[in-house]
Amino acid sequence: MKQKDKYPKEAQEHVCIDVYETPANVDEWQECPYCKLKPKIWVFDNGRHTACGCCTDDYSIYDHLSIHAESIMSVYKRCNGNLDEYDSDELRKNWNHWCETGEEVFSQQYNETRRW
Fold first, then answer.
1. If 0-12 CB within 10 Å is exposed, 13-18 middle and 19+ buried, where does residue 45 land?
2. Over the chain (116 residues), what is each successive 10-residue block's mean pLDDT?
3. Is the full-model pTM beyond 0.90?
């Protein structure tokens, strides 16, 4: 994760590409403790990501703070087609947990449990 000193104290806007959207249940998402914005999200077959106003010093839309959750295709492949373990609310839970504790629950990287 990036150093706290790279995060803005307050951000005017989200730093991300246009595919990110405001979640339907935005009131259930906490504000980022650094930039004070509620996240936008990008959910697709192979990923679930957040974006707020936190980014590198050059404010690149491709290099920003992002909390993740296991994708639906990752669960599908890991569980041989069974989606019982897929939690459609996991991204919000992971975001809120990070806001409260600073701990990232899910790593985006593919690991020994075959999640990515």
1. exposed
2. 53 84 97 93 92 73 83 92 95 96 79 57
3. no
